[in-house]
Design goal:
Number of helices: 14
Helix content: 40-55%
Strand content: under 5%
Radius of gyration: 20 Å
Structural class: mainly alpha
Order of helices and strands: HHHHHHHHHHHHHH
Length: about 260
């Protein structure tokens, strides 16, 4: 998980955006036809991509380059709506992290197209995203617990967050630190750090001004309560003490 990957929808020519270094796929070999297909996706060459998909044998629409990026992920990164639309018409297309990339870039139209695809269910916009990611390759950009709705809240994407909420997306509030339910016990035993990361990721989303504004009937009261709760976590969760303190202050500023 690299925070440098998060970018909102607004961009400034005076500010350079850090580009994360991607790990190379070990032992990766590209078929010449796949290379042509992916290079065409990078250039936005729809006709060449269509020829590759109609050839015999046709190219694998989910093939990836040496950085592990598929054609749909490249198209989303380039905000090419036309190519995304064409790729979504392919029966075997796998959306994967392309949805997260679209949310990060703040491209409302592409996000809407992706969540309307039959392979994306209502549950996958929230808590079911973990199960969905566990069936595919582990992402090099986002941990499995960063679901579409959590990322939209992190990026403070008001319109996209409103869209996801209208489609039934939810964020489950973390259990108390002292919780001893079977689920919490199991997660703590399997990976205590991941359990703590899920908590901080979730609270960062719940503290988002966009999330509070769109989901609370009394945003000021919600912000005050959340600020107190985060201040309490600041004293208990040593690994993320500074993060909880910052989020608590963020809630106080929001209420003002």
């Amino acid at each position: 998980f690299r925070p440098g990957n998060f970018r909102g929808s607004s961009r400034s020519s005076n500010r350079s955006i850090p580009i994360p270094l991607e790990p190379l796929k070990e032992g990766h070999r590209m078929d010449p036809q796949e290379r042509i297909f992916l290079e065409a996706a990078e250039r936005g060459d729809k006709h060449t991509m269509m020829r590759c998909l109609q050839a015999k044998p046709k190219v694998n629409v989910n093939c990836t380059n040496i950085l592990g990026r598929s054609a749909i992920q490249i198209a989303v990164d380039n905000e090419n709506v036309e190519i995304v639309e064409m790729l979504l018409q392919q029966e075997t297309i796998k959306i994967g992290d392309a949805l997260l990339y679209a949310i990060r870039e703040g491209v409302y139209r592409i996000v809407e197209m992706l969540i309307d695809h039959p392979s994306i269910t209502r549950g996958m916009l929230g808590s079911d995203w973990v199960q969905y990611k566990s069936t595919g390759e582990e992402s090099s950009d986002y941990p499995p617990d960063i679901s579409p709705v959590i990322l939209a809240a992190h990026c403070n994407q008001f319109e996209i967050l409103q869209l996801l909420l209208s489609r039934g997306a939810k964020i489950e509030k973390p259990h108390a630190l002292t919780c001893s339910c079977q689920r919490c016990k199991k997660e703590m035993q399997q990976d205590s750090l991941r359990h703590s990361l899920l908590r901080i990721h979730t609270y960062r989303a719940l503290s988002s001004p966009a999330w509070i504004s769109l989901t609370s009937s009394d945003p000021v009261l919600t912000a005050f309560k959340l600020s107190w709760e985060l201040e309490h976590l600041d004293m208990r969760e040593n690994e993320f003490k500074d993060s909880y303190a910052e989020l608590s202050e963020q809630c106080r500023k929001y209420s003002c």
